[in-house]
Amino acid sequence: MGEGMRVGLKYCGGCNPEYDRVALVRHIEESLQGKIAFVSPESEGVGLILAVEGCRTACADLSAFEGMEIRVITNIEAGYRFIQEIRAQVE
Amino acid sequence: MTMMTAEQYEESLRRLNLVVYMFGKRIGNVVDDPIIRPSMNAVAKTYELAYRPEHEDIMTATSHITGNRINRFTHIHQSIEDLVKKSKMGRLLGRETGCCFQRCVGMDALNALSIVTFDIDAKHGTKYYKRFVKYLEYVQENDFTVDGAMTDPKGDRSLPPHKQPDPDQFMHVVEERKDGIIVRGAKAHQTGAVNSHEIIIMPTLAMRQEDKDYAISFALPSDAEGITYIMGRQSCDTRKLEGGTMDQGNLLFGGHEALVVFDNVFVPWDRVFMFKEYEFSRQLVEQFAAYHRQSYACKVGVGDVIIGAAQTAAEYNGVEKASHIRDKIVEMNHLNETLYCGCIACASEGHKEPSGTYCVNILLANVHKHNVTRFPFEISRIAQDIAGGLMVTLPSEKDLQSPETAKWLKKYFEAHHDIPTENRMHILRLIENLTLGTAATNYLTESMHGAGSPQAQRIMISRRINMQEKQRAAKKLCGIEE
Lengths: 91, 482
Prior knowledge:
The complex is a heterodimer.
Chain A: E1 5-11, H1 21-31, E2 36-39, E3 48-52, E4 70-73, H2 76-90
Parallel strand pairs in A: 1-2, 1-3, 3-4
Chain B: H1 6-14, E1 20-22, E2 25-26, H2 37-48, H3 56-59, E3 60-62, E4 69-71, H4 80-97, H5 104-124, H6 128-142, E5 146-149, E6 172-176, E7 180-191, E8 198-201, E9 216-221, E10 227-231, E11 257-268, E12 272-275, H7 281-294, H8 298-317, H9 323-348, E13 351-352, E14 358-359, H10 362-372, H11 375-387, H12 397-401, H13 406-412, H14 421-436, H15 440-449, H16 454-464, H17 467-477
């Protein structure tokens, strides 16, 4: 089975997150197994950056990814929408 | 190397040759001493979290000197975002450790010196800035923990340094040589001193010409010859010797402070960043103090822990739905988030200095710290209110383990039936630790006096407020023409 799209994973710093970001990422990974593979955002062949922000301040530094496709998650519901979006794209 | 892991940090401390005394004895193995170890664990957390992807964004930065990824504690702030992330890093670490993680003072000293050395050179044509940047690169590349040492013992507070009966009450130069200087004095209340690789000395007062021998700033390895550390006691410190898993409260982390004595210590010139340019001592003190007052963002994180503990205690007691309990929790959060407002505000309103370093808004940093001298005490009071008197009458965990008494403790200290009595005891011990145990050293008394006592902030607020503008606004609105 191929690994699917390489998605660069970028977290905010997690100073006071409103949800468990790591658990959400784990859930996204399990739900989209075979469709995406989370890699370091600096990796080669990254098709998309997923910014996992702990709150709506969304202060993660994304300046290094200018020009790339970026999706921003600031809560659990946005994570679920991302899962649906990727599934729809792949199907 | 650039960024050490927590394990590498621990090993690096083992290579130091520190002279440390505690309870009247020389400590042979500082790293593993049970009283000191929790403080090492707290500093180690600053290294560990830098490698975690979910915290890397605030724990690391890009060095403006080398372009390498570095731990934010060795970074010179290059933007407003850097200042804000420093505040957020403080909250994160305060919450993860529940104590003082000790590394901020060095970061604040480095940032203050990056500004002041530049300004001294601009006025006097000296070479301090270049010397400092070389030292900074050394710190960054080795990912050192630096103790930023400002507070002199001070002796008779009514007398300036040069009039003290004992001239060593303030750190000063005793001899100038071709290759460096000899200094003598001490620095008190030094947080994390024996967990540090380097120590930076700064003057503690704005010095005048008569005190120019005291207007010195320099850096040394923490185990330089002639330096002696005498550990400070903390409330309930010897609980760490009892070998238990409950009565310490915070099982993993803690802070420490020490008196650091410099007995005729040699400092090579390439480690000297200010030498008798007394007119810059005030700027160094004020800018270091502003950065360090911002650093009390850490207490917001510790506040998160104490609020979580209070809520848990309320749930274990079965009173979490009572309206007065809910209101008390709201009050704790209000106070805690107000502190957060302050550390974010002073960062967001920062500015760029001629050296390129970004500095916090000094007025707002002092306002923030002045709140920190008060709000943790009220938060603690409410936590003790919710915890109840059992917090200070609870028998030892040894009684919980003893076959003769365990059954009575489990029976009579059970509150909510579904909650093991041991859990209730654990959470009460944590609240005790934070409000009157070892962690209260930092959460309360250090909140009061660290980075300058309350009056110091009131002086700065008074100096920095633009009263003329306020009066102009008032007079205009009520029709006074002058």
